[in-house]
Amino acid sequence: MKQLLNISLKNSFYVLLINLLTILFYCPAIVQAESLEQFAGAHTRVVWVQEQGNGADTYGFGENFKLMGYDSRDGKKERPLLKQTENFYKPIITPDGKKVVVSSRSRHEIYLVDFKKGKRKSLGKGVAVDVWQDPANGKVWVYALAGDGPENKYFTTHPLVRFPIKKPKKREQVWSKTHLSWSNFDMSRDGKFAGGLFPWPDAGILLFEQNTWKKYGKGCWTSLSPDNSAILWVFDGLHRNLNFVNPFTAKFWTTNINSAPGIGGFEVYHPRWSNHVRFMTMTGPYVEGEGGNKINGGGQKVEVYVGRFSPNLKSIEGWFQVTHNDRADFYPDVWIENGAQSNVSSGKPQPLPVVANGEDADWPGDLGKLVFLWQDLMAENKLGDSSLLGFSQFTVTPKTRAYFNRFLEMDFNQSGFVASIPGEKIAATIQKKNGIGIEFLYTPLVTGAHAEGPVFRLQTEKNTDFLSVFQQEKSLEVTLFKNNTEIGKIMVPDVLHPNRPEHLFIDLQDKQLKLYVNGRLIKDIVLNASPFTSMQNLSLLLGHPEENTFGLNGSISHVAMYAASFNASEITRKAHKVTGEIEARKEIKPIQLKGELIETSTIPAPDSLGAYRRALVVNRFRISDILQGNYSEKEILVAQWAVLDRTVLPETKDYKVGTRLELKVEKFDQHPELEGERLMMDMFDPDLELYYQVRF
User: Fold this and answer.
1) Containing H/E element for 37?
2) Which H or E run includes 286?
3) How far apart, in whole angstroms, are the C-alpha atoms of residue 102 and residue 480?
């Protein structure tokens, strides 16, 4: 019995050992090295700024920051480099690792700080954006935005200048053709080009010798590889992925960075390449605030991380958490000894192309392959005479409770939209090509219990699906049918999150079905039969527009259909274009209040609206309590939907004097989708600004 027990224990030990080795080899991203130097493989220093308050000053405007540092060899871990608490912004470690160039954003002053001794001196006016060492003579230059003119948190009109770090008064202007943004601006090792925003959200590469720049996408927090490979990343608007481009090869790919241990899938920010091509840094997680973009909320849980890229830069193979504190840590920079000798690939540097294979940086590109296009409410949404269909203008019609949101997207509101398309021509074109590509951006509002329904459907006839995309709580299903019989399905679990946009691309060629999410191939299958052979006509439904039904709460935009096939790099590029645009969406601070309705506008009869199918009414409320936001007046005017799809809404029964309601409202003029809608207003008060009721 004792012998059997020993054998059993030995077997258990070996099983445990095998499992541990499996984790080490196949899940390196969850393994924390014992020390930062062990992780990076060399002497390493990290600098950042730490907010001393509630952690909400993500962009570094205030005076409540300390300049922090971490040295892998001094044993002090994270510590202040200076005793003062003031406005410190975007610290940059010098190429020798001994000093830090840091700026005051509020005073527009640049300082040089000794990392070890903590001494600082002024380098003059401006805000430093990079420090570069000339490989020809070893001279170190500071690049800065300096001058006069308007600026905001997104960009500055100040020109780009540079000066020798030892002679800060000897300044020369470098670039003034475009405005530039405050976040990352990175020089190549040879100094011939730089990556940046020109300005936000237009990302690209500056070519100094040609005195021009090339746009490669939209987003924020660009970073250029610290060698001469010119590989550029653009941080996507989801604040989860780095969208890479190699301008020499016109190859695009996406690398996820919000899966580090401790991040929990939340947003991250301040991504920045170190001086070594294999290492980057970032901050996170951002968990405070409402909605899908929590960067503005900051929070005391935000820490500094260092990530190690795989050799091909297509994944993060390991993470090291630098900070462990109850303060918000922002704007990190990492220096690794001998990092300046690292390269993405060997080979002689070559001239950077001004134009990358004629690539159009704006969505959707590939106009000659399109058979349907609907970007948003204000876009032209048309194809020209030379398209596969000839000139075509596309519209979508909201049904039952559906309308458009402030991002000009289709908002399902438990209903949906019907697209106007030349169904027979599209079906014939797709049959001829024996394939179709479909893309769209989908943002679910809820993903919990009972959040289920169709997102996108192509039908060959009424109630007969050809292709459907279906949300089942957090999961997505893509199903193909032929003659009302299912011939293949892809199901992706746990891909959806509330208020988080996802770019989807469905590539269907003959019998092969592929699904890409945010530019990455998730799954591909072979169908039981080709779905194209019996196709005669097509109709397109978004959401659940059928009457007497309840669908999803979510929104959709950037809908395109192609009679063509695309390779993985091309599909990734399309995702980059769309997710990059999300970064330009501005946050609105809502007001949540309790109030009593004291004056109403007349609810119009649908038949009196003429050509209008929707109408809002303006009602006046006396405020009893402000639950969220700031509002100083005692009364408020609120525009509320009364008629949708030529039907009076049931909630209008509460639009009576004396009714007490709890409302969530936003300024009316911050909702461009309402331009041109029928607005009934039986009152006039020039002293009160108009607000618009939105969903909780």
Assistant:
1) helix 36-40
2) strand 279-286
3) 56
Cβ-defined contacts of 144-151 (< 8 Å, 24+): 144/103, 144/110, 145/180, 145/182, 146/108, 146/171
Residue 657: which of 601, 603, 597, 593 has the closest Cα? 597
Residue 8, φ and ψ in degrees, nearest 5: -65, -40
Q: Percentages helix, strand, coil for the chain, rounded to the nearest 5?
A: 10, 45, 45
pLDDT tens by residue, 149-207: 888 777 788 899 999 999 999 999 999 999 998 888 999 999 999 999 998 888 899 99
Domains in the chain, start-ordered, CATH in brackets?
A: 44-338 (2.120.10.30), 367-582 (2.60.120.200), 591-694 (2.40.50)
Report the alpha-carbon distance of residue 257 to residue 265 in Å, rounded.
9
Collapsed DSSP state (helix, strand, coil) of residue 25:
helix
Q: Is 367 helix (H, G, I), strand (E, B) or coil?
A: helix
What are the tokens at 666?
Answer: 């936003």
Q: What is the mean pLDDT of the chain?
A: 89
Q: Is 284 exposed, middle or buried (0-12, 13-18, 19+ CB in 10 A)?
A: buried
* 617 vs 621: CA distance, rounded Å: 13
Q: What pTM was computed for the model? A: 0.73
What does residue 462 show for φ and ψ, rounded to 5 degrees? -55, 130
Residue listed under structure tokens 């392959």: 369
Contact 639, 680 (CB under 8 A): no
